[in-house]
Specification:
alpha+beta, five-stranded antiparallel β-sheet, 2 helices, globular
Amino acid sequence: MAAADTEPSKSYTHPAGPDSKRDRWRKSRFCGATSGCLEVSALGTGMTGVRDSVLDDSSPVIILDRDVMASFLGRIKAGQLDLR
């Protein structure tokens, strides 16, 4: 097994994001104008930034690699992260 196969997926937070003013942030079309949602931005090289839409540019950004983002989205779609 190659070393790259055993490395854990990487994610980290960065206050105000890598370049939050330049990056194109998107949120779901299901988000209302007055409700808070997560926003995402493709950061290149397989990395995705996730932030709180209410805080905009002042929001800390969680940066996820492709595998972690796919797992996160899978859990959302499966309802595993719904508030009950």
